[in-house]
Amino acid sequence: MKQRVWIIGGSSGIGLGLVKLWLLRDCQLVVSSRMALSNTDLLTLRKIYPKSLHLLEFDVSQTEHIENIINEAWSTYGGLDLWFYNAGIYKSMPLNEWNTQNFEQMTQTNYLGAVTLIKHLYPHFKAQKHGQWIFNISLSALIGLPYGAAYSAPKAALLNLAESIQGELQEENIQLQVINHGFVKTRLTDVNDFEMPQLMDVDTAAKKIMSELDKPYRFEITFPFALTFFLKLLRFLPYKLSLAITKKALK
Ligand SMILES: NC(=O)c1ccc[n+]([C@@H]2O[C@H](COP(=O)([O-])OP(=O)(O)OC[C@H]3O[C@@H](n4cnc5c(N)ncnc54)[C@H](OP(=O)(O)O)[C@@H]3O)[C@@H](O)[C@H]2O)c1
After folding, report:
1. What's the pTM value of the predicted model, to 2 decimals?
2. How far is the CA of 140 from the centre of ligand 1 (A)?
3. Which of 11, 112, 141, 223 is the most buried (most CB within 10 A)?
């Protein structure tokens, strides 16, 4: 049976890269984003794969019609095997440009959207008795870095949430995995004016994610190795040392 996938945030960058790989693997896809129905890349792909690519416009911060959205995503192929939460927005901000609206938007998209979807998707997956959930989080969830709080705090919240529900989900035969990866060259990181260590292109990142998902289950997928090792080390060092190191990123 073909794998049925719903990716939220599949219209550009890493998500679009994954969509192309799943289509090559003959999967059946529902692809959502705020502008899925006017995205030229997705519309071109739909012409090539009319039976395997269903576009479902959905803004995760606007959830008043959530039941209709869930029903459409669930019924398109008669169930879902894999739900991939990839929606994310990013803006860095020094303290003297603090903007609470940015915090609200990033919290909605990077965290609360997933919370709402869990509430509405869980009963379907539970009744189906199997499923796989993937949250694309970020290595930035591991430790707060200068100027990044509005982005990374909701990502850290999503990681904490995933840790807390993983066991309950497993009892229902739903496997939850998180992906904490490093810098990938997309429109999201194009705004950065600093050198991004181990920056990857989208194709490399999407292929890496796919190959990691093919391996036997483990809760966390991380890459690239050196950046992961460095950030995990920072997380476990005493604050006196780790905060002295992260302070060096101040401009
Ligand atoms: N690039 C990196 O270095 C990096 C590193 C670690 C983690 N990540 C994470 O990887 C994921 C993909 O990022 P990317 O770099 O590929 O950025 P991207 O090209 O900007 O992709 C973000 C995707 O999320 C969708 N999206 C944004 N807001 C949404 C909303 N409110 N509702 C529904 N969909 C929404 C976008 O589509 P629309 O604009 O059409 O809504 C787009 O499809 C994000 O979660 C990001 O945090 C990225």
Report:
1. 0.98
2. 14
3. 11
In angstroms, how far is the first alpha carbon of the chain from the final one? 53
**Ligand 1 atom at shortest distance from the alpha carbon of 179:** 7
Tens of pLDDT, residue by residue over 162-182, are: 999 999 999 999 999 999 999
- Ligand 1, residues 6, 7, 8, 11: which to mutate, most atoms within 8 A of Cβ? 11
CA–CA gap between residue 83 and residue 70 (Å, rounded): 11
Helix 149-171 to helix 113-128 angle (10° resolution) is 10
Helix (H, G, I), strand (E, B) or coil at 89: coil
| Distance from C-alpha of 32 to C-alpha of 83, rounded to nearest angstrom | 11
Q: How far is ligand 1, taken at its centre, from the CA of residue 57, in Å?
A: 14
Q: In what order do the strands lie in the sheet with 131-136?
A: 53-57, 28-33, 4-8, 82-85, 131-136, 174-181, 220-223
